From TrEMBL:
Annotated keywords: Membrane, Transmembrane, Transmembrane helix
Transmembrane segments: 41-64, 79-99, 111-130, 136-160, 167-187, 199-221, 403-427, 439-457, 469-490, 496-517, 529-548, 560-582
InterPro entries named in the record: MFS, MFS_trans_sf, Proton-linked_MCT
GO molecular function: monocarboxylic acid transmembrane transporter activity
Protein name: Monocarboxylate transporter
Keyword Manganese listed: no
Keyword set includes Membrane: yes
Annotated stretches, region: Disordered: 230-328
Start-end of Polar residues biased regions: 266-279
Amino acid sequence: MASKQELDKKQLEEQVRLKKIADSHLEEEYEYVTEPPDGGFGWVIAIAAMLCNLVCDGTLFAFGTMKVYLQQHFGCSDMVILMVGSVPCGVYLLVGPIVSGLANRYGCRPIIIIGSIGAAACMVLSTFSPNVGAMIIIYGIFGGVFFGMVYLPSVVMVSFYFDKKRAIANGLVTAGTGLGALSFGPLANYLMKIYGWQAGIRIFAAIMLTCIGFGSIMRPLQPTKRLIKREPESEISDMKNSKDEKQKTVPSEAAGETNVPLLSAGNASPRINNSTAVSGSDIPPVATLGTSSSPTVGSLRVRSLSSSSRVSATSGGHLPHGVANPEDASRPFYKKDVLFTGSKSQLHHLSHTSLHNSNPYVASVTNIPALVDEEQKKDSAVKAFADILRTMTDFSILKNKQLLLICIGNIFSMLGYYLPIMCLVSYASEDHKVDLTKASFLLTIFGAFNTLGRFAGGPIAMIPHLSALRVHNALLFTAGVLTVLAAYTYNFTSCAVYAALCGFAIAPHMSLLPSVICDCVGLERYTTAFGVLFLFRGVTSIIGPPAAGFLKDYTKKYDLAFVIGGAMIIIASFFHMCIVCVKPDQEVDTVESKNNEEATQKNKLD
């Protein structure tokens, strides 16, 4: 009798539980997703980012002209005075991972505004420097940090607003660097010649404050709220089989899954795979849920994507996965491709290994920490900073031999990269006795052709039998040879020819290298690769110009500095050429995954 009552009680509890599940279907659940508009207000963002680049890079590149006036005032050697210009160029790259974390935590707009105010303040304070050492600290170190806070978030905002037209938008942004180089050099000479170097730098500080307005325009992209449709039958069956699902959970690293906060309730921690189900493709379907600490609650949160949430490869439209927390949906660095400046549609031509088995937009979903409850949602802001900082300083990616070659190559290339920017004006005016006003226009020539080279690199790489890597390597080698030959220039005309040719040839080292890196590591680890590359570039950017100044102080001429600087660029091109000799790690991973899968199937049969 007692056993019958217990059985009736269990049946009643089961009915109550099933009724709760049925009632939960009446509740509407939503996910949040940010979809790039690819136009509209995005073009305003692109123009604002271009102007930020113009002011930021223009000010740093104008140091080639400022150097003459600063050296006359402080009476120091070339090596020391060139540190004033090289330190900010290196520091604003070194702080890239930190700035990225801050932008992901607080948003790009406030970081740009703070960076603009800080950079302007440092420039003004540097004019009161009692000696060159104080100026290196104020303008170089602290100013470099604030310059980085303006530069990187402005570029990221463009990538956040554009997808299909990203290459065009970023082309507009990079034009700002060239425009700044061609205009700020002569402007610096004009201002400092008439008003003195202190007043000239203060005017540049006032120009820097305009980035406050440009940053204010960059409003974050608001996520769209999207209804999630669930299938009751699948939920009930998943609840009944929750015990089996526990045993079949696949490790995230082996399955290549991504932790994305979808629906946060109780202790449910749903996970989805990077590769969403796409009709007519090899992409695997959406991954099953990971193990939950509470199977019953976890099963209530299982949901299937509605038809509007699926990706259609045939129609060409692709929608990203949504997240449960709208703040995470607005965090730019939670997109793996946010630092990629090219168009992802070009990756199928420019990149042969990174995306041949995945949809470009789906691959842009990144590792967002899974949110479990309301208390952990509050911690997501802290994680937003820590996750990106950890991602961009993960040196384990250097196990990828191709990326290691790129990083070593950039160590050598950056030793000579800033040589024409910071030393060419002094080389012409001091060694060739060219008038300083006339010599300052060498930066204008360099900037104009550098802009042209940045635009031309992509179309040249699209030519049959060419690739981003081949064009990059050929032009980098050419830039090194030209820099060596610059030692044989003898007047303004020959220096101008060098400025034009080198400006064009060195441009793809910045514009095409992102495609080369993506080809080596894929979008999966692109942010990590670029974060590590920032660190390598930052260190050698600080060393390069002072090393050239040391050679100038020792030999009393710049010709040896240009020869050695050019040799460094040539060595860098050889390292990049060796990339084709190294087997891509992704192909190795694919073979290993296939072997593991075959072994698993064999074990099942046994």
